[in-house]
Structures are given as C-alpha cells and as structure tokens.
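pasting NB-ARC domain-containing protein for the record, 1071 residues
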Amino acid sequence: MTEFWNKAIEFLATTISQSAVDALWQNSAVSSNISKLRATLPRARLLIERSECWRFRYKPIDELLPQVKAAVYEAEIRLDEYDSEKWRVEGANWRIPGELINNFKNWVSGFPAKVLSAQDAVDHMSEELEKICNNFSIPENPNQFSKTARPITSSDHPKIYGREKELDHAISLLGVPKSDLCVGDSSSRIAKKRKLAILPIVGMGGVGKTTLAQMVYKYKNVQSYFNLKVWVCVSDQFDLERLTKEIIQCATGNECNVTNLDLLQETLKELVKSKRVLLVLDDIWSKDWQRLLGPMIEASDGSAVILTTRDPEHVVCTAGDMNILDLIRLEGLEENIFWDFFKICSGLEVDSENYLQLENIGREICGRLKGFPLAAITLGGLLRKRLDEQHWINIRDSKMWELKHGEHDIMPVLQLSYQYLPSHLKKCFSFCALYPKDHEFTSIDLAKLWIMYRFIPVQESLKRMEDLALDYFHDLKNSCFFHYKDNSYGIEKYVIHDLMHDVCQSITKDECYCLEEEDIGKISLNIHHIYVFDMTSVSEENLRKMFKLKKLQSLVVSPYCSFRAIKSLCHGLKSIRRLSLPSCNIEKIPENIGNLKHLQYLDISNTKILNLPDSFCSLYNLQHLDMWGCDQMLCFPNGSNKLTGLQIFRPPVHLVPLLTHIPNLLRAMQLYNVTYQVENDGRNTIENLKHMTRVSGFLNIRNLENVSRKEAAEEAELNKKELDKLCLYWDDTLTNQVSNKIHMEVLEGLRPHSNLTVLEIHGYKGQDLSPSWMGDGLPNLRRVLFNRCFNYTLSQLPRSITELEIRQCGMLTSLQDCLQPNLLPKLKSIYIGGKELVSLPVESFGEFVFLEYCSFKSCLNLKCPKMMVLPPSIKRLELDKCGELDYSIPSCLQNLTSLRSLILSHCPHIVSIPAEVMKNLKSLWNLTVLYCENLQSLGDEQFLESLKSCNIVRCPHLAKLQYLNGGRHRKALPSGAAVPNSSHTIPSEQQRAPLIVSPTTGTPVITPGSPSNQPMPSTVTMALGEPTAAAPSSPSTVPSITHMPSIVAPSTDTPSSSNASRKRKRVCQGK
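structre below
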C-alpha cells in the first residue's frame, strides 16, 4: 500500500510541476522576446557576410564589424541559456512542485532584461553596419556558388609545370649523380666537403618552394644516393624538442615517447651516424632551425639540409661546421608555361565551344597572378565552376583586385576565392583559423566540430548531418581550400596553404587566436576561440587574464601539455562550449565543472583521471565526450543517464561493459571503435549490445564462446548501419566449450548491417565459414579475414570483396568452389595460409584482372596438377612452403610487367629462373630468395644489378654468388632503407665489404682487403656475378669470423588494417 501512495504522489507532483512549467513558458515575457531575437539573427549574419571581405579596404567596416559579431554572439548565448534551462527543468525529477516553480521563477526574473539588452545591441549594430555598407556601395548579394556548382578536380596535378632548371641546379648542388651508373661517385661538390651542406630555397608565399623541395625529395637518384631521408614541416612555431622527436619518428617509422631533450638528441645522433642523410626543413620562419642540426655532425660526408623560407635572412648560418650552398631564389613561372598551367587549373580547353571568348578574359586574369602557381590553382578552381563568359568577366572586374597589396602579393586572389564561397562554407572554413599553420585536418574530425558549432543546418530530408558536413568538406577540398597531405594509417589528412591560412586568420582576427606566452596581452576581450601551443609557458597571471575572457567559446590545448588550472577555468569560463585537453597531464576533474552549463564538446582523452564528479552529470548540453585512453578511470558517475544530450562518446575500452547499465543513454549517443567482452556473469552478456544502437568505426566482440544460443546472438542486434568493421573472436585455445553446431548458430545470429566493409572472424569452429548472410547480404563488404578457424568448408563470399585473407584455418582443404574469378570479380589481394589446404584453382587466377597481391604461406600439402596462371596486374608475389605450387615458377612469371616484389622461400621445386623471364619483369626492384635448396640459376648479372634490393640466402646450388662491389656499376643503396613489404634493411656504403657466399652453407664471409673496422651488415644483399679480384682463392685466405649476424626472413606484409596511432601535431615524411 505504501508503494502505491509513493507512486501516486510522484505522478501528481510530476504532472502538476509540468503543468506549472508549461504555463510559465507560455505566459512569461521571455518566450515572445526569445522568438523575436531568433528572427533577428539571420539578418545580422547576412550583414556580417556581406561586409567581412571589405574590412581590408574600408576602415569604418573594419572597426565596426567586431562589434556586430560580438552582439550576435551575445544573442546566441542568451538563446543557449534559454534552451538549456528549459531542457534542465523539463528533464528534472522534482518531487515538490513548489521547489521546481521557485527555482524556475528565480531564473526567469532576471533573464528578460538580458534578452532585451541583446536584442537592442543586435538591432543597433546591424543598422549601423548596413548604413556603412550602403555608403560604400557594398553589394547585397555577393557572387556565390550553390552546392550544385560544377565539381572541380584536385589541385594535385600529375604534371609539374616549369622548374626544370631549378631542379637540375638543386640536384647538382647536392652532388646527386644524374645517371644510375655512377650513383656511388664521390666527385661531387658536397662529397669533397666535410661540412654539412645547406641548400636554401627562397621565395614569396605561393611561388612553389615546397613543390620544388618535393621534386628534389622524390627525384629518382636522390632515393638511392641518400641512405636516410626525412621531411619535417617547421612552420612559425619552433619547438626544438617536438621537432627533434618528429625527425626521429620519421627516420624510424615508430612513435617516440622520449621527453628529455638531451636523450632525444643522443638518439638522433645514433640514427644518423655513418649515414648520408637528406633532411628537409620546410617553411622556416626564423634562424632557430640551426639548433636542430647539432646531432647531424655524426652524419657521413655528403649529408645535406634543404630549407624553404620566404626570408633569405633566415638562412644566414652562424655555425662553422655548415656549408651554405648557392641560394635558389624562386620567382613566378615564365609567361608561356604559366598560361599552360592556368588553362589546366581553370578547365579551359582549346576544343571547348566558347574557348575564343574565354581565352582573352583568361589571359587578362592570368597576367594579374604574377606567375604564382598557388594563385592559378585557387582562382582556376573558382573559374572552372562555370565556364561562361559573364562569370569570367565578373571575376576579372571584381573590386577585390583593388585591395591594397605588395607588388608580388597574391592575397587579393585568395580573398576573391573566399568571397565566392557560399555562406555555409565560409563559416566552416573560417573556423579553421583557430588552428596553427600546417595543422593536419581530417574530414571526420572537422565534420563533428562543424555540427557542434551549428554550422550544419538540420535537414528536413533523410540525409544525416554527418554526411552533409562531409559534403561541405569535399566542396572546400574541391575548391582548393584544403590540400591533400598524406594517408598515414589509413586516415587521409589535409592541410591549408600558409597564405590561405593568412586569409582565414585575417577574416577571423577578432574571433580566433593561436596563443603564445608573449601574445597574451594582445587578445581581444571579444575573442571566441583560443588554441594554446604550450600551457606550461603561460604564467599564472596570464592564465587569470585568459579566464576573464567571458565570451570565449573554445579552448584547445596542444597535446602533452601540463594543464594545472582546470579548476580556475571552470570558475571563470562559464560560457565555454568546447574544451579540448587531449593527452594533458590531468589527474582530476573538479566538482565545479558543473558550472560549464554551455559545454558541448569535451576531450580529455589519454589523461590520467580516475573518476568524474557527480556534478559532471549536470552538463545537459554536452554532445561530444572523448575519454579514449583514460585507462585509469574507475567508473562512470552516478546520474550519467541525465546526459541525454550526449551524441558522440569514445569511452575507455575497459569501461565499455558498464555502459550497458545506462541503456537510455546508449540508445541516443554514438560510440566510436568499441571493444566488448562477453562474460558469463549475467551482466556483460551479448544481449546488452542491443543498447549500443549507434556504433561506428569498428566493433570487436571477444569471448563469443560464452554465447550458447542463437537467440541471444540475435538479441545483440548487430544490424548497426554506421558500423564499418566487425571483428568476431572465439577463444580457440578452449576445447569442448560449446559444440560446433552452437558456433554456427551463434555466427548466424550475429548478422551485421549491409553497410559493413570489413569482417574478421577469429577462432570460429563451425563446420562452414559462410553463414547465410555472407553472400548477397553484404554488398559493400571489401575485406574478409578468417584466422585460426577450424572449418571444413567455405561455401560463399560476397562478390564485392577486394581482399581475402585466410590464416591458419585447419581442416579447410579446398577453395575450389568459392575462389573463382566469376564469383569474386573485384579481388585485388589474396593471402592463403593453411597446412591442411590441398586444392586451389590456381589455373584460373589469371582471370582475376584486378589482382595485385598474391601470397601463399605454409600450405605444405597443396597439390597443383595444373600450373598457376597470374594476371599482368600482379605487383607482389610471395611463395613460402607452398607444397607443389612452386612448380609454377618460372612459367607463371611470364608477362608480369607490373611485378615489383618477388619473394620465394623454402621452394624446393624451383631449379631455374632464366634470364629471359627475369628481363620481362620490367617493374621488379625487390627480389628475395630464401632456402631454395635446388635453385641452380637465377637471371643474369646485368638484371640483378638493376634491382634496388636483391636478397639471396641459403641457396647452396647457386654456384656463383658474390656481393655486388667495386667498379663503376655498383649500385649505391641507402642505409637503413626499409625494403617495401620486407623487414630487411640495406647496409650503408661504409658498412659494405666485398662478400662471397659459401655454396654449401650460404654463409657470407669477409674477403681480404675489406675494412676490418666496419661492422657486418645486418642483412646481406647479393647478386649473381663473377668473383672480383679481391675474392679469396682458398679458405686459408679467409680471416676468422667471431660473430655472424642473424639473417631474418622478410616479414609478411598482409593487407590488414592497422589501428591509427596517436595523431601528431605536424606530419613529416621519412623514407
């Protein structure tokens, strides 16, 4: 009875409370004022857009525009407060109506005055700005393009126009031979000098300095002349520790976690020791770069540093052990060359119907660009959107050309391109001014931020906001506002050119700021977004100043900073919407974080926090929470269900099971990259996954042996449309846990959505690897991996897959039925490994017209009554312990003109690969032959000398083997260079000694005359040829060997996806 009355009272209280609240919303003066304010803001935003590009020309606009933006921002804050309070009250669980009403009345009593004040400010400032715009005849509707404008191609043109002379001059100065036949020649200018050579490339922004440096960096003979190449973007924020760490990471390809500068420099010394190194320092802004080069004294003769900078004063060198080469000064491209380049960028083709009308206009515009490639790329992208005469005339006659600029300045061109962007793209792009120059952007990250800042409108159509935001990014990329940088770890990264970044910052100078210690006093009180490079350099006094910026919306702190003032931040910056503190030294979140009621985005990933305070659950506006890598986090706070606005959440992996206890929250938010472990404890069951309705990225489900019913698997509801990758794990070390039939039923119940692109199955013991949904049910699947699965058959695969990988699948004896070209027409990569495998349709592989990668390993029982046939598209072929498959060598090598890497290991049936066959492998540059005991002949000396990498180990019947050495035909190979798809490294010239190989053991021995003080190479690169004069005539002449380095077989390079590593602030390239 008591329980009945408690529920009745609670129901009445809630009903009365809600009625009272609804009455207050409807009857208060606030509601009408809020509606009026919402209706006013669009007009104010249009005025801002109309005038912002003219602030560079008209001082009254420049002075008034920040005040208008501040008024609009203040109005947006009031709207946020209203929405937040309404959300809080409506979602509260109030038992006493009077308490609810009193709290709400207190808030309402002071709020109307704030709304009216915001309304008056917006009206007044907008009126003033409109008068000024009319006085200067600023057009009301600036020329723009809609989203349906003609798409354009990327600025990454396959052909480089001009700069041939500059390239030749740079190559000559570096001492790099032009011919492959003399790549070891030491007669160059640099090789004669023991000083470190410095090659400066100087020129205005946008003239092509970085492009020329890239041409040198990728030049064919530069690849082989230098043992180690590293590319680092320095930019205007010089940080010795960070840049040294980046050089090490580029050189090794591994993450560097050392924080001590002395230790970093010692590490770098060891890396460059006795190697000829090419270091590119791109975008130098001061003389501080010389501090980076201390460890370079250990590099060998011929090492060089290429600098790119706008100011030649920055390359004046004070150190005595450096040699400044001739300065390469870049000017604009020659007129004829530049016109050809401009035509490509603008889409002007000779055979187009209006070519004659557009040519004259185009030549006028082209003449104003001063030969600068960046100007042609940017403005050309604008012109090609509409190839009609009036559009080109409008651009030619635009008043933007009248903006003040230097003689060789192309800023008006870039400002004109920005002016023509649609308003929604202007907002998205200008926001990027928050970040420093050369910051790496990803489309996914920007899309999330644009949505959070409400740059993306809510669509009435079925299109998701995330997809619309990605469309915006691609529109900007196609208009050349973002430039492709690289694709590291499968993530495409983009940068903004320095000059375009300057345009972006000039437009948002009152809103976005990159903070350094000495700049703290320059920050406007109206600033909205701040990026802090190094929080440790900001004094307590300056922190207090920053926390008085009442209009600050965003505080983004560079990773790995020590952030000690979060409690003061939560007290002072109550209007902040975004707080980003990734990898910062934070151990505790203060209780007063509940003050940040406008907070929508919080990134505390990879921090050391143990828990979140209960006040955290009052952040009703929080939409994005990133706690990935918070491995010391103990639990979620009580009341997490109140965070009903949370849309995107990256939780710590070990706390994912706890999320299932807040199902209401799980249904609303999006989870990225989730690992879930199924337990038998009755709590972390497979069924709990149904609450994770919005999982994107990957989903790993482990310990599926704990699922014993198909119905339980079906209740997981894996039909999640945003999921890209699904990995299913059974523990294959357990025996008799569940029957094979249960495995099959569980897999059948785990049916994913048709959008899935990657599927991995590990440790599965069902009879058939193919559930009913494997075929036509996954039309978008691209990659399939079966690992340690104990099955008899694989009956079907989706036609869409491009990568198939089967590893250690015992009991699987045949792939005849499913591995057919007509069933898998798009297949690009095959990796097969299984000792029980007996039958493969290798005779039909030639019909896989897109096949590029083919690897067979540990297929000891494979029978091949027919020879393997391969398509010309093959780029990499690897056979290792593959039964009778090696009988197909050399016949299957015919016409493989695209083959780049050939690896043969433990292939006893290969006797000979004739020179005629090898010569047809025109693209081959890596040949590895290991433990082929019956191999007697292998091509000829001329062909093997042409290879970049030739590794031959333990082939006792190859009668004549020697290490290529001496003579002018020696191929100089880079030290430490990673052989693609191989674990081998190539010894430096200093490490090379003439070697011969014992025909019976394959053991390399040092010949007389080889430098006794040089270390043996860690791997042996050999080729067939005649012995040199220095070769020993008998074993008695061979010195004793006290240590023989181990020779490691190449690692398998499979087409598997790797986890993305922690993002770096700058990207750099290493060989």
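The mean pLDDT is 75.
The chain is about 30% helix and 15% strand.
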